[in-house]
Write a structure and sequence with these properties.
CATH superfamily of the largest domain: Cytochrome c-like domain
Distance between the termini: 34 Å
Oligomer: single chain
Shape: globular
Structural class: mainly alpha
Number of helices: 11
Number of strands: 0
Amino acid sequence: MRPQTIACLLLYGLSLVSANPGATAATPDRIASIASERCEACHGVGGQGNNSMFPKLSGQNEAYLVQQMFNFKSRARRSSVMEPQLADLSGEDIVLLARHFSNRALRGTPASDPQLATMGRKIYAEGNPASGVAACHVCHGPAAHGGQMLPRLAGQHAEYLELQLRRFIERSRTTDQTLMHSVAMRMTDEEIRAVSHYLSGLN
């Protein structure tokens, strides 16, 4: 599905809830049930994450979560796990589910290797001019909280962040801004581990 179509679906889903402000109050039990029955096994209770191969959802930016769920639902972003979980959900369901997780505080994991975290902090803030690696904070913000359509990285599993960076290098993840392909491909394995380790410890 084309990016323009996905953007239209995203705006449509958001408009459903905006046009019906009572929806949030009317469906909390149903959304909580969906979150528990479909999301908890991989993403943990409340989206706090119990498996580093799957992202933490709590505290993630609402619009970004909506976008990614529409990506999976439309199969623009492929996942044999996510596609069936979203197949029967409406646009309103997706928006409310995103809000359900976004409103929860995310807890980071204290860095276990201070030296690696220090290296990661430097790369995040300054990049690596010698190899052309851009500073991450330019897009994801000084606190790594991202933006409307950019993911919050602070507090995310280090292993998951590493995996996504490698998928950008392989170009097996293609639905996000292609800028990430050129950034990630310039990073060394040590830089990838360092940045991921640093980000996982942030709140």
